[in-house]
Amino acid sequence: MLTDDLDIYLVGGAVRDRLIAERAGQRADASPSDRDWVVVGAAAQQLLDRGFAQIGKDFPVFLHPDTKEEYALARTERKRGAGHTGFDVDANPGVTLSEDLSRRDLTINAIAQGADGQLIDPHGGEADIAAGCLRHVSDAFVEDPLRVFRVARFAAQLPGFEVAPETQVLLRNMCDGRELLTLSAERVWQEFVKALVAPQPHRFFEVLRSCHGLSDWLPECQTMPLDQLARHRPEPLERFALLPLSTHDVQALAGRLLAPKAFVQAAVDRMSYLSLLSDWPQVDGVALFQAVEQLKALHDSRRLVLIMQLMDSPTLRHRLERELLPLLAELKNLALPADRAATLKGAAFGEALTEIRVQYLNERLAAL
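The chain above was modelled as a monomer; its predicted structure follows.
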């Protein structure tokens, strides 16, 4: 095999999640995309010669030619400037596994597993897993302010885990020092979305509130009612659309985080039309047709379908699928009588067509 003569260790999330699952009497089988490996005592050229592809010319991370798993050379990092690129990286073959683990953020992420299955745990990560503790590895933790969001995200992702008091101090110092302002919107958005789809998304905001971490990037979430956060839908777009915020706050938050337009559209659509659809079939035909037109649902029903998917009631959602969606097709096929159509032009034609469609809607709604 390509890696048989290399000194390789499984590291990070795959090891952490297996240990957590084992403590809960469960089984955690990491997919290739979840596994990360560190290579000790090797140079970049050795991996390149074996067909590995380097990710970025200045970073010692490589993709396996067959599995596409990430293999990183053991490295150390020294802060030299602002931002996540402001590090001097040393990945020479003399860097040890212990040195590599020492640069990681949390003790639970600083555990390695050798080819023989033995754990290398110099910072007590296994004990912190047993205690449900999110603890920083070293004072170098403060060199990357994204770690504030990562700790909050792990609190959301790992039920029962609490931030260690000494780590809480570092988080607050970083936030009060406005270190988070050096981050890019893209990096913050990535952590935000991961937290939204976590088992306990409210914990992300609780941890950030406690360390003053919402002010710079998520001020709209300062007073957001956390007990109203969606937890029963795993899709990030759906959970974003269901955030208990106003339209103005959602748009401000999304603009700051450079969120995809589809996320903003889904949230605004939910706030504008979910209440109307929730009264089905006791719906006013004029209001329903206006919603259908604004959603452009006669031409593409995807926005309407997404709103329906955000409903709490599966029964109502299924009823809308059975009744409203076919009704849209009927509306689309409605046409003015030829003799009347011949006498109308422009806005008058559209108004007349709308009139017969609304009339048809009211008749069909009354029959439901």
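Residues 1-128 form a domain with the Beta Polymerase; domain 2 fold (CATH 3.30.460.10).
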